[in-house]
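A.,

Following up on our hallway conversation. Structure tokens first:
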């Protein structure tokens, strides 16, 4: 009888400890214990392109292409329209970085591109903060 009571005690508390460890692991994975900023920097936040870096000194914006092979047909800004890239009208592979020069803080960048798989044209824009 004592052996059964001891085994039930260990099983009950064993499961409770296992649940507590799982909850702590889930909270850690969600970043609850992370010190510092709670969000990943995203400026500008395009819906298709990923922000990589921006230099206000050189006015260069670096973004990463999404999962499709594209051809960028135009890059415009709402400022003095000096945003340019050497990648215009060239095939851009998935995951490739694209450098856009002449981008001032506060400008809205609009990128028009063609998905080479479907042939459809798309427009993506974001404001640099």
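Then the amino acids I'd put at each of the 129 positions:
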């Amino acid at each position: 009888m004592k052996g059964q009571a001891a085994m039930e005690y260990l099983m009950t508390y064993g499961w409770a400890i296992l649940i507590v460890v799982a909850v702590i692991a889930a909270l850690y994975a969600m970043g609850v214990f992370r010190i510092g900023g709670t969000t990943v920097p995203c400026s500008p936040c395009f819906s298709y392109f990923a922000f990589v870096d921006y230099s206000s000194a050189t006015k260069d914006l670096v973004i990463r292409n999404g999962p499709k092979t594209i051809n960028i047909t135009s890059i415009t800004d709402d400022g003095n329209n000096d945003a340019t890239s050497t990648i215009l009208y060239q095939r851009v592979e998935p995951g490739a970085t694209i450098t856009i020069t002449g981008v001032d803080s506060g400008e809205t960048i609009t990128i028009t591109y063609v998905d080479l798989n479907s042939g459809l044209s798309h427009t993506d824009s974001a404001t640099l903060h």
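Residues 1-38 form one domain. Curious whether your intuition agrees with the design.

B.
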